[in-house]
Amino acid sequence: MKSERNGQEETDHREPLEQNQTEKQVSFTGRVLTIGFIGGLFWSLIGYLLYLLNFTKIKPALVLTPWVVADWKDQALGNWIGIFIIAFLSMLVAMAYKILLAKFKHMITGVIYGIILWGIVFYLLRPIFPALEPIQELGTNTVTTTLCLYVLYGLFIGFSISFEYDELTKARQEGH
Fold first, then answer.
1. Contacts of 72 (CB under 8 A, 6+ apart)
2. Fewer CB within 10 A of the end CB, N or C, for the chain?
3. How many angstroms separate the CA atoms of 46 and 78, rounded?
4. End-to-end distance of the chain based on CA atoms, in angstroms?
């Protein structure tokens, strides 16, 4: 509120100043979901770049193949939609990490998680994706590139979630 006194404006200081307001804490689950979304978005963008640079035959639009038969899925639009679908699916992957492995502080846990995810996608889920060739037919570049991408993704998810879990644990201990 402003009032005029002697021709000058004066501000009413009943509202708390910005520097005095306490920051609202985002829940641990909210942080995990954010880490998952950002991780999926970032690493699928890197994957798309690697596809465009011919390091891999796999493109983000692969996630659309079981459900979309239209030709646009093989163009740039399909890849961009695939990137965002992967980002949302990554939130589930991050929640699984939170439930199963958040207590582990070692980087190797995230690396192993990435390798397991790669195995799930390229072996267990392969029948769902008709456009995904068998491992033997993908070629060394594609296998190596995608495996490295999944390892880095798993490391990002694992390390970020374990760090947040550790910070939350420290904060709780200091609060008691």
1. 78
2. C
3. 16
4. 41
Closest CA to 41 of 93, 91, 96, 83: 83
Q: How far, in whole angstroms, is CA 22 from its chain's centroid?
A: 28
- Calpha distance 101→113 (Å, rounded): 9
Please give the DSSP secondary-structure letter assigned to residue 134.
P
Amino acid type, 46: I
> What integer pLDDT is reported at residue 12 of this predicted model?
52
CB distance 158 to 101 below 8 Å: yes
Cross-strand pairs, 59: none
DSSP classification of residue 12? -
pLDDT band at 24 (very low <50, low <70, confident <90, very high): low
pLDDT in tens, 68-83: 878 888 899 999 999 9
pTM for this model (two decimals): 0.82
Beta strand spans in the chain (E): 2-5, 8-11
Q: Per residue in 139-165, pLDDT tens?
A: 999 999 999 999 999 999 999 999 999
